[in-house]
Amino acid sequence: MSHENLDALRRSNRAFNEGALDRALEIWDPEGVYYELPGTPLDTAEVLEGLDQIRASLLTYLEEFPDFHSEIDELIDADDKVVCVQRWTGTGRESGLSVELDEVIVFKFDNGKIIEGRVHRDRASALAAAELELDT
C-alpha cells in the first residue's frame, strides 16, 4: 500500500499547486489531524482537527500568499507512513516579499487516507519519529 501513498501525496501536491484545493484535500480522512510546529508563520492553529480546519488553514495561507505552492524534495516510504520533505514558497499579497518555508512532515495513512500529519523541525527528527512509530 505504501507505493499508493507516495503516489497519492504527489497527486495531492500537484492539485494544490494547480489551485485545486478540494482535489488536493481528497487524500485526507475527514477526521484527520494535522500538528504544526509552535509559532506558525501566520499564527494559525497548531492542531488542526478535521478537514474543515485543515482547509481553513490552507485558505489563510493562500489569502496572504496567492501564489503559495509546494515543491516536494523527497518522499520516504515508511509502511503506513510517509516522510515528506518539502519547501513552501510564496509572495506576500500586500508586502510583495517572498517567503520560503522548509517543512518535514510525517503523514500517517489508514485505508489510503491521511489520518495524521505531524510537522517536525528537521529531516532527522522526522525519520526518528517514523522509526519509533514503526517499532511500536
What does this entry show, briefly?
The protein has 136 residues and is of the alpha+beta class.
* Shape field: globular
The count of DSSP E runs of length 2 or more, i.e. the number of strands, is 6
Low-confidence segments: 132-136
CATH fold call? Nuclear Transport Factor 2, Chain: A
Give the domain tally.
Answer: 1
Topology:
Blueprint: H1 2-17, H2 21-25, E1 28-35, E2 47-49, H3 51-64, E3 69-78, E4 81-91, E5 98-110, E6 113-120, H4 123-135
Parallel strand pairs: 1-6
Antiparallel strand pairs: 1-2, 3-4, 4-5, 5-6
Q: Tags for this entry?
A:
Nuclear Transport Factor 2, Chain: A, 6 strands, about 140 residues, 6-stranded mixed beta sheet, alpha+beta, 4 helices
